[in-house]
Amino acid sequence: METGGRFIEILIEIWNKELFSIDESVFKVRTLIILFVSLFLLTFLTSRLRRLLINRVFPRYNLEKGVAVSIATITRYIIVTVGFIVILQASGIDLSALGILLGALGIGIGFGLQNITNNFISGIIILFERPIKVGDRVEVGGITGNVTNISARSTTLLTNDNISVVVPNSDFINSTVINWSLLDRNVRFNFPVGVSYKEDPERVKALLLEVAHDNPGVLRVPKPDVLIDGFGDSSIDLNLRVWTSRFSDRPRVLRSQLYYAIFRKFRENGVEIPFPQRDMHLRSGFEKIGAGDGDEAGNGPE
């Protein structure tokens, strides 16, 4: 019994043990424990609230997923900021006494945390201005993929090969970003096609438009069209232009489908797809070599 009482006394002593003080604020073990537990609960609960807003609340108002994620994330940041201040005050910590720590933190940010701070601020700018949002098809730094998550420090892109690429938020602010679906997911693709000079361009145009209309991934409005890009060395160069929303993130799949269909359509209708040709001219006869040339070369009679 005495051992148990002594153990409780030791715990109470540790609980009330003073670690350090800043001005009039005294930091005890219990202060730090309460602070860490409160911050953990704050982070955990706000994370659950963010998912609740995205998955349950905002869908009732028919908000786009990207907009819902941005609003939910900003809401979480605000609650975390206010909750952090309230937790510090409730723990008996004088906020004015943290000036020294904040000053030291500012020096640390100035020297060692520049990139982290830059990415964090860039993440806030992305959430407010929304140059990109979850679900967008973007291209940055040679990487193309769908935006799956925007966090405080980085943005995750999912490529067509199912590879997740984590890109720092500052790259979306400081670099040129191509957003294929900023306004909508309708994208126009161009597919060059070459045919022989003996073919009628109007007939080939009609066949190409048939191929485009038969593909369910090609939009009817805006309508597909065919342009003549020029006259090549061996072919008439045409350009099939189609609009799609289904394949905005898979252009190579649509290209393959259309080219397969074009090849079949051309073969069925006897349309010739040319190959590079070159005309060769042979000169008859040989140039005569003067008698003096042989002597100069040392090949004449001795």
Description:
- The protein is an alpha+beta fold.
- The chain has three domains: 111 residues, no CATH class; 47 residues, SH3 type barrels, CATH 2.30.30; 82 residues, Alpha-Beta Plaits (2-Layer Sandwich).
- It has nine helices and ten strands.
- The strands form three sheets. It has a five-stranded antiparallel beta sheet with strand order 6-5-4-3-7.
What does the secondary structure layout of this molecule look like, with pairings?
Layout: H1 2-15, E1 18-22, E2 25-28, H2 29-57, H3 65-90, H4 99-111, H5 114-129, E3 137-140, E4 143-150, E5 154-158, E6 164-168, H6 169-174, E7 177-179, E8 187-195, H7 201-214, E9 225-231, E10 236-244, H8 251-268, H9 291-296
Antiparallel strand pairs: 1-2, 3-4, 3-7, 4-5, 5-6, 8-10, 9-10
Helix pairs in contact: 2-3, 7-8
Main beta-sheet strand count, sense and barrel state: 5 strands, antiparallel
The beta-strand count equals 10
How much helix is in the residues? 40-55%
Radius of gyration: 36 Å
Count of DSSP-assigned helices:
9
CA distance, first residue to last residue:
132 Å
Strand arrangement within the widest β-sheet reads 6-5-4-3-7
Mean pLDDT: 81
Structural class: alpha+beta
Low-confidence stretches: none
Query: What is the general shape?
Result: elongated
Order of helices and strands: HEEHHHHEEEEHEEHEEHH
Strand percent estimate: 15-25%
Count of spatially separate domains: 3
